[in-house]
Amino acid sequence: HHHRMMAAGIPYSDVEGARERAPETWLQWMAYWTERASFYDRLAAEADARGEHVTASAHWVRTALCHHFGQFMVYEHLEEKARAQADKVAAYRRAAPHFRPGATFLSVPAPVGPVPVVLRTPGHGPAPCVILVPGLEATKEGLHGWEWFFLGRGMAVAAIDGPGQGELADRALVPDQYVAAVSAVVDRLSADPAVDAGRIGIMGVSLGGLLASMVTAHEHRLAAAVEVGGTFDTESRWERANALSRRGHQFITKSSDEETTRKVVAQWTMAPLAGQIRCPFLVVHGELDVIVPLDQAEAYAKAVPHAELVVVPDGNHVCNN
After folding, report:
1. Dihedral pair phi/psi, residue 211, rounded to 5°
2. How many Cβ atoms are within 10 Å of 250's Cβ, its own excluded?
3. Segments of the chain with pLDDT less than 50
4. For the chain, which terminus, N or C, has the lower number of CB atoms within 10 Å?
């Protein structure tokens, strides 16, 4: 996952440090990243005290990312995992006051409970807005690096944690509930004077690609959708999924064992929904993706009306390389 970590904003030197440390247990892995988080937190506090707020903000974003990857795929130490998640959220909130453009933290009422959203708008009147949907073991803070692709083009971004993710990690991910949660976010964004209600789109990454696609099939207010490295039909790739990915699905569904997990996620398919997508739909996939094989992207391109498929040569999962 080193490509994913560096794409998110983890410095190469820290990734190499983890390799040199060669942790043998998950607790050792977490300890390394907690140390790195403390290092960046200290740099941030020192910069903040000097009035160097932009520098401090960047260090606190790295603090948050270190906490995130410390708990990443750790399922045997749930108390420590939850603590790292909380530390990540706290560090990101410390960073946010000096984001340019700024960030507003929303808590959007939804049937599953309040949905946390980080909304950033370019500040020049009603702007198009892209809802950013994280995937398995991903959260809104980890999508920080994606935001610039849209903000730099005059679009607003709304990064979310849905059920089973980040601040809502204690909930099971149930697709219908996820769809309802995002529809509630669309309601909130549509009423925001900084957002052009007629130009709200969605982008999902990895498992988030599947989730964003499910939302798009039901939520026809969306003007455009993008799925990056997502699954089309979970059952069709289950045997090819690695053990950590299967364990991640067990965690996010709150299933008791792998066989139960398989039965649950067998229902996670776009096959009956793809034809309901009405808006322009972009599919981006790495040619060499071994986590979600290319045939999943080809299935989207075949089944979704108005779909455009972009295959990145030599790209790995989510094209992080």
Report:
1. -65, -45
2. 20
3. none
4. C
Residue type for 10, please? I
Closest CA to 158 of 124, 204, 112: 204
Cβ(206)–Cβ(293) under 8 Å?
A: no
pLDDT of the residue at 211: 98
In the block, residue with structure tokens 């198009």: 128
Are 184 and 163 a contacting pair, CB within 8 Å?
no
Residue appearing with tokens 């398995």: 136
Inter-CA distances, 90 with 105, 248, 280, Å? 12, 24, 37
Q: Are the C-beta atoms of residues 132 and 146 closer than 8 Å to each other?
A: yes
Task: For residue 300, give the 3-state DSSP assignment.
Answer: helix
Active site residues: 137, 206, 289, 317
Q: Which residues of 10-22 are buried (b: 16+ CB within 10 A; e: fewer)?
A: beeebbeebeeee
CA dist., res. 139 & res. 62, Å (int): 14
pTM of the model: 0.97
Amino acid of residue 229:
G
Q: How far does the chain reach from its first CA to its final CA, in angstroms?
A: 10
**How many CB atoms are located within 10 Å of the residue 148 CB?**
11
Torsion of CA 143, 15, 136, 227, to 10 degrees: 50
Residue type, 110: A
In angstroms, the CA 230 to CA 285 distance is 8
> In this predicted structure, what is the pLDDT of residue 124?
83
pLDDT of 123 reads 86
Sequence-ordered list of residues with C-beta below 8 angstroms from that of 237, at least 6 positions apart, any chain:
231, 292, 293, 296
Query: What are the structure tokens assigned to 311, written together?
Result: 């295959």
| Residue showing tokens 């529809």 | 183
> Nearest Cα to 231, choosing from 246, 251, 218, 219?
246
Provide the pLDDT for residue 57: 98
